Amino acid sequence: MKITVFAQIQAHSGQSDALFNILKQLVSDTHTEAGCFEYTLHRSLDNANHFWMYEVWQSQAALEAHMASPHFNAFLAVSAALVKQVDIHKTFAC
Fold it and tell me: Helix crossing, 60-68 with 70-79: angle to 10°?
C-alpha cells in the first residue's frame, strides 16, 4: 500500500533561508532511495518561514527505511535549531 506524507515545516524567524538550503539537500538525497515515488518541497508564497513536503512512498517499510537513513538523521540533527514546528500527516489512498 502506498503511503503519502504531508509535512508542514515552520522555520524560526530569520532561519528560513538556512532551512530551505538544508531541505533542498534532503530532497536531493531522498530521491535516490528505493521506494520513494515522490519527495517534493514547497515553500509558501505568503510566508517564507513555511514549507511543505509532499512525499509518496511505495510502502510503510520504505518510509521507515527513509526515516532511519543516515541523510535523514543528519537532516534532523542539523535542522533542529532552525525548525520552530513540524506537523506530519500520513495517509493512504482509499
Answer: 60
36-77 tens-digit pLDDT? 999 999 999 999 999 999 999 999 999 999 999 999 999 999
Across the strands, what pairs with 73?
none
* 23 close to 53: Cβ distance less than 8 angstroms: yes
Gap between the Cα atoms of 5 and 89, Å rounded: 6
* 94 pLDDT tier (thresholds 50, 70, 90): confident
In our burial notation (b when 16+ CB lie closer than 10 A, e otherwise), range 49-82 reads bbbebebbbbeeebbebbeebeebeebeeebeeb
